[in-house]
Amino acid sequence: MAEKLTIGKALNAGLRRALEQDPKVLIMGEDVGKLGGVFRITDGLQKDFGEDRVIDTPLAESGIIGTAVGLAIRGYRPVCEIQFDGFVYPAYDQIVSQVAKMHFRSQGKVKVPMVIRIPFGGGIGAVEHHSESPEAYFAHTAGLKVVACSSPQDAYTMIQQAIASDDPIVFLEPKRRYHEKGEVDTEATYPLHASRRVRPGTDATVLAYGPMVRTALDAATAAQEDGRDLEVFDLRTLSPLDLEPVFESVRRTGRCVIVHEAPSNVGLGAEIAARITEECFYSLEAPVLRVTGFDTPYPAARLEEDYLPDLDRVLDAVDRTFGW
Amino acid sequence: MAKGDRGAPARGKEVAGEPAPDFVQLLTPDGERIDKSVGADGVEYTIDLTDEEYRGLYRDLVVIRRLDAEATALQRQGELGIWASLLGQEAAQVGSGRALRPQDMAFPTYREHGVLYCRGIDPILPLSLYRGVDQGAWDPAEFKVNMYTIVIGAQTLHATGYAMGITKDGKVGGDDGEAVICYFGDGATSQGDVNEAFIWSSVFHAPIVFFCQNNQYAISEPIEKQTRIPLYRRADGFGFPGLRVDGNDVLATYAVTRTALDNARHGQGPTLIEAYTYRMGAHTTTDDPTRYRVASEVEEWQARDPIARVRAFVEKQQIADAAFIAEVDEQAKQEALQLRERVLAMPDPHPLTLFDHVYPNGSPVVDAQRERYAEYLDSFEGSAH
Ligand SMILES: Cc1ncc(C[n+]2csc(CCOP(=O)(O)OP(=O)(O)O)c2C)c(N)n1
């Protein structure tokens, strides 16, 4: 069945379906119950599934993740909401030292099938700690998988796949795109850990994920006017990366630009650029370039448009790959 | 509301909005003075201020409420990105803020606009943060108020460390000793950081007052999601005194905070004060409290308004006349007007400032990015951009 939903509503529908299909699925977090979360992603779920399954927790992120580990050991499948990206750090120890390592340490005897949902990225005019892109911290940690959705379809499908997976998954949601609408096929099936070509093109390859996919697509549309045909990928899975289709693309285009909001220093772009250089060295017409947030703390709201990659900065980087 | 029975501390579940019988109160919601009030710490509290001081507290309360209302209006008009209103918490903030002595240091959350005002911080400074112009960078050393902290509970450890430093510097033990006050909310008490701060301050006997404004809610979550016992009783398990005060009573709040700070500066260690109050407005301007609380609860608290009772008291006692009340209203109006004008006139920051102050010693990486971005911006010069 296909219907038009926003990313936020699609996540809500996906969570609802997961709760319906598996009685072990729990939702927990700050304000997720009566309020339905500050972004209303869990709206109505507590009303329909009860306080036992949709749990307003005390205000403590380490507590949320740590108790979710215990619930997972006990056979539940917790879906934890972290209210904003910048508030995941009190739980960082639980995530990188406990969640990530249970399976490895127990030689596969203990699984912690949990999902950590994080609305991430900027562009909403917020005060500090509400606009960050912490993906690299998690992608750097073996034992965690990290995915980012960018469309209503993926929001709906990926959240269910993440919940069904036995891997602990950090699930990044593009908060500034929550209200963007798109078709959702509720029966669609495709793999979770796969990148996707969202626009075919011949002249240069642009890679993005989460909120930057829309930016990359807009840049591609604008580039068309200059007679440049950009191929755009939505990476979707940040750990593990799925780069085979990207390598194939870069071998054809010879040019690649990576876009993310997170700072460039030791960010996802660095890893991707290294891998592309290793795999596509003889096809490259220019170095792989990155368009990212700056290596500064996320700035005050009135400077965030300068900080965040936008269409112009993407096109500027594309230009530079042609000027090489 | 009549003052409740001050018997055994309440047991069982804490429920948002239910009256707390076990608090220190010196001024009833009707404006009646209570002579003495015994706290859960066994101490008898009283207060004797000059008429001038009573009028001063009234003036503070009225002005900060008016400035807060102005900020809310500015947000509604798109001039601030967001605003965290203190409506309903004026007495907790003025009572504690005025109890500080000049040498004392405060660590606020993001809602202590009233405390800032009492410390002489220009109200434009927190507004620049909420406008998104900067991150509220006043100089903590100048005003003896640390910057706002948005990450819930983090400042409690900073405050504790600062207090440990006071002890190390030998600045406790006399009337001129220093003390720290640390603000946080009821929700914050669940954070590990806050509990660690309690442990540290207790073990190191730090000169600190933990001032918890229990406004009954952490966004949508009522107090019973955080605790089963009154919050002030948590102190007992950490090894220092705790007490609850009527946070809508500026006199009681002043009295208990003064005493706790003076105890701290004299080397008697930490105190936890739970100021029992109510967040009359939304959590912030992005919040919709009708989704999680009923109007009747808000109305009940309306009847315990922190300002109305002071006004009733000063009028009844003939400490203030109609002319004074009118003069304060006029002052509040003028200050709000000025604040509005200054907010509207606030320039946007220059883009390149986002590269400033990342490190005390600078960084070649940041410098290179600043340079590259300046060139990039210049490339648009003269174009339609
Ligand atoms: C570590 C962290 N987690 C979550 C948040 C989001 N958040 C902001 S305010 C708030 C509720 C705080 O409640 P309380 O401590 O009672 O203070 P109040 O806002 O009521 O004054 C939450 C959950 C945050 N700022 N920091």
From TrEMBL, chain A:
Write one Gene Ontology MF term: magnesium ion binding
Name its species: Phytohabitans flavus
Question: Which Pfam families does the record match to this protein?
Answer: Transket_pyr, Transketolase_C
Ranges of residues in domain Transketolase-like pyrimidine-binding: 5-180
Q: Give the UniProt keywords, A-Z.
A: Oxidoreductase, Pyruvate, Thiamine pyrophosphate
Supply the name of the protein.
Answer: Pyruvate dehydrogenase E1 component subunit beta
Q: Which cofactor does it need?
A: thiamine diphosphate
The cross-references to PANTHER family, in alphabetical order and at most eight, read: PYRUVATE DEHYDROGENASE E1 COMPONENT BETA SUBUNIT, PYRUVATE DEHYDROGENASE E1 COMPONENT SUBUNIT BETA
What domain of life is recorded for the organism?
Bacteria
Automatic annotation (TrEMBL), chain B:
Q: What cofactor is this protein dependent on?
A: thiamine diphosphate
- On whether Oxidoreductase is a keyword of this UniProt record, the answer is yes
Q: Which InterPro entries match?
A: Alpha-ketoacid_DH_E1_comp, DH_E1, PdhA/BkdA, THDP-binding
Note the superkingdom of the native organism.
Answer: Bacteria
Query: What Pfam families does its record include?
Result: E1_dh
BP-aspect Gene Ontology terms: branched-chain amino acid catabolic process
Q: Which Gene3D superfamilies match?
A: 3.40.50.970
Q: Where is the composition biased (Basic and acidic residues)?
A: 1-16
Annotated stretches, region: Disordered:
1-21
- Residue intervals passing through the bilayer: none
Q: Does the UniProt entry include the keyword Oxidoreductase? A: yes
PANTHER family assigned: 2-OXOISOVALERATE DEHYDROGENASE SUBUNIT ALPHA, MITOCHONDRIAL (PTHR43380)
Name of the protein this chain belongs to: Pyruvate dehydrogenase E1 component subunit alpha
Q: Which organism is it from?
A: Phytohabitans flavus
Gene responsible for this protein: pdhA
